[in-house]
Design a protein that fits this description.
Number of strands: 2
Number of helices: 7
Strand content: 5-15%
Shape: elongated
Structural class: mainly alpha
Oligomer: single chain
Length: about 160
């Protein structure tokens, strides 16, 4: 023996999940080498025998996937990158909700014979309002208060 310590490369493998980037950043801050493996790549190595999906089979699949020399790892995102992604996801969610709400209104109005083009509800609001006021039943004409999202209750 020469007194030298054996050299080996040690690193932590993480399966991609909602908190994987946070955990990887914490491990890197502790001085460890953390690598994230995409979840769809780990699934290929999970054994689905009698035991099914559990923590032990997940850990074995992560180890197996991480040991492959051709494995591609996901770069760890910074806090700034994740913050920007959150803003984009929120914006996309708001757009989907707005579209769903407009389509729901159009569907309800169609039940009373008021049929509009897809963009008519959002772009031609004045024409739409005047048409609804003259052609729809009284329960649909009374406007909601602007300060509240809930319709007024009858006293």
């Amino acid at each position: 023996m020469t007194g030298e310590e054996p050299s080996f490369e040690a690193w932590c493998g993480l399966q991609g999940s909602s908190s994987a980037h946070h955990r990887a950043r914490r491990l890197v801050a502790m001085g460890l080498d953390a690598r994230i493996i995409a979840a769809h790549q780990v699934e290929l190595y999970r054994l689905q025998g009698k035991s099914g999906k559990n923590d032990a089979s997940d850990a074995a699949a992560i180890c197996e996937a991480a040991s492959r020399p051709q494995m591609h790892f996901v770069p760890i995102k910074t806090v700034e990158q994740q913050s920007m992604l959150c803003i984009h996801r929120l914006r996309e969610g708001f757009k989907e909700e707005r579209t769903a709400c407009v389509n729901r209104i159009r569907g309800l109005l169609a039940e009373f014979g008021l049929v509009f083009a897809q963009n008519a509800v959002s772009e031609e609001t004045n024409l739409y309002s005047s048409y609804v006021a003259t052609k729809s039943p009284p329960c649909c004409v009374k406007p909601f208060p602007m300060s509240s999202r809930m319709p007024p209750t009858s006293s």
